[in-house]
């Protein structure tokens, strides 16, 4: 009976990291969806510049969660598999790609308030060539 309980505890410990990684990625996805909805409201319905840094902060939070999950996954997975080499599937690369895009979007949304005049259409048009 004691051996069965120890085996169940060992299996549960082996699965806990995978559940934590999945939870971090799902929480990041939910925050990303919320940031997308807020950005649609801020940019499409009415130009609300004050929401843009908040959206950038949400995206930075998503990046932090994704990086933590994407670092935990290969470390714990390699501890579980003792064969040496293992090639990760396309989903791992897709996760890093989504993280890089989220970093770019976070920088973009943090910098957008500087270009309020250009976004609202009040900026004077700048021409490259002058007619002299």
Automatic annotation (TrEMBL):
It comes from the Eukaryota. The chain crosses the membrane at residues 20-44, 51-75, 87-112. Keywords: Cell junction, Membrane, Transmembrane, Transmembrane helix. Gene3D superfamilies: 1.20.140.150. It comes from Collichthys lucidus. Coiled coil: none annotated. It is a multi-pass membrane protein. It is found in: Cell junction; Membrane. This is p53 apoptosis effector related to PMP-22. InterPro entries: P53_induced. Belongs to the TMEM47 family. One of its GO terms (cellular component) is cell-cell junction. The keyword Disulfide bond does not apply. The keyword Zinc-finger does not apply. GO terms for biological process: cell-cell adhesion.
């Amino acid at each position: 009976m004691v051996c069965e309980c120890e085996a169940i505890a060992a299996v549960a410990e082996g699965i806990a990291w995978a559940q934590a990684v999945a939870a971090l990625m799902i929480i990041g996805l939910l925050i990303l969806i919320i940031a997308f909805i807020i950005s649609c409201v801020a940019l499409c319905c009415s130009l609300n510049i004050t929401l843009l840094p908040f959206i950038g902060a949400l995206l930075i939070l998503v990046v932090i969660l994704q990086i933590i999950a994407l670092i935990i996954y290969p470390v714990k997975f390699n501890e579980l598999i003792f064969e040496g080499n293992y090639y990760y599937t396309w989903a791992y690369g897709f996760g890093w790609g989504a993280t890089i895009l989220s970093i770019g979007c976070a920088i973009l949304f943090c910098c957008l308030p500087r270009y309020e005049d250009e976004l609202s259409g009040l900026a004077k048009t700048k021409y490259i060539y002058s007619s002299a």
